[in-house]
Specification:
The protein is about 50% helix and about 5% strand. The longest helix is centred in the N-terminal third of the chain and has 46 residues. About 25% of the residues have low confidence.
Length: about 325
């Protein structure tokens, strides 16, 4: 190559370098323009879908799961003249069922409880209707075998009786008696330990079904006192006695304060029927003494056989009503 051709070669090399750099940066500029166009398209799509709830999605988005951050109109779809609902949307009825712990679509379950303000009247426990339907209960006299039958107690769990009727049966078993002349409850035969704390029959269910602390706390405390009076051996009486009738327990999602307290009252009534019903106070104390002696004798026998002292099994404290 001659010397005179070198300048032409340098010019040609410079032109090639400039052309190559132009090609390298071209995709970047194209991508920027395309992204801007896509952003405009997305904003236009969102504005159109929010203005019209009946917007139809494109085929490319039919199989995409919805995101909670987007309007529900993006995920409504018309097929065959019907619009599919947003799968994340919660209807008012399903929300009510979730809050109340009951499913109205299932047969046999009662509707969600609503406040019953009549129960706030102090006279309601004396004048409210009882024993008008199939549930066996009478305000007068002491408890009867019919009132404590498995079939009758099963109706408590199935909510086939009123809250007042449940309270009335428990009150009679605790020893309260209704004075027809004075139209009031008396504590004539109430167990001593219970009478000391509750000289008047307490609401064990929460008949008003208003669960604020100011209204419901007395009922909650009384129900807890009733539960603490049941020995450990009798805690599972519901399944023991009512399983043949179809009771298998509650699911967690089904529980409500009303259902829980009804179950606790029914369990206490079974304990009362099996351990307390028909005995005088002196007889109950004697039976308790004999039972304690038998447990101590069994403990000594086991220690003698094993050759070492046995550790006492922990049991939750029981505060018996008598």
């Amino acid at each position: 190559m001659t010397v005179t051709s070198r300048p032409a070669l340098l010019v040609l090399l410079f032109i090639c370098c400039c052309y190559t750099s132009t090609l390298a940066f071209a995709p970047v500029r194209c991508f920027s323009v395309s992204a801007n166009n896509n952003n405009h398209n997305v904003r236009d799509l969102l504005s159109r879908t929010t203005r019209s709830s009946s917007a139809t999605v494109t085929t490319s988005t039919r199989n995409v799961l919805p995101s909670r951050g987007f309007p529900s109109a993006l995920f409504s779809e018309k097929e065959g003249g019907q619009e599919n609902e947003d799968p994340w949307k919660t209807s008012s009825s399903s929300k009510r069922e979730e809050d109340c712990g009951c499913d109205e679509s299932k047969p046999g379950l009662p509707p969600p409880p609503t406040p019953f303000v009549e129960a706030l009247d102090p006279k309601y426990k004396c004048t409210g209707p009882v024993g008008q339907d199939s549930f066996v209960v009478s305000r007068t006299g002491g408890p009867t075998k019919e009132e404590l039958s498995n079939e009758n107690l099963y109706k408590i769990l199935m909510i086939e009786c009123t809250d007042l009727e449940v309270n009335t049966v428990v009150w009679k078993c605790l020893g309260y008696r209704f004075d027809e002349e004075k139209q009031e409850w008396t504590a004539a035969e109430v167990f001593p330990n219970w009478k000391e704390k509750y000289p008047n029959p307490p609401d064990l269910i929460g008949m008003a079904r208003i669960y604020s602390k100011e209204v419901d706390q007395p009922s909650l405390k009384a129900n807890q006192s009733l539960v603490r009076s049941v020995p450990v051996d009798n805690k599972q009486s519901l399944k023991t006695h009512l399983k043949p009738l179809g009771f298998t327990g509650y699911k967690y999602a089904e529980l409500t304060p009303n259902k829980t307290r009804r179950a606790q009252c029914a369990n206490w009534l079974l304990y009362y029927r099996e351990e307390l019903f028909g005995y005088t106070l002196e007889e109950l104390r004697e039976r308790r003494r004999l039972k304690k002696e038998a447990e101590e004798e069994e403990k000594r026998r086991l220690e003698k056989e094993n050759g070492k002292a046995s550790q006492d099994e922990w049991k939750p404290p029981v505060k018996e009503v008598f």
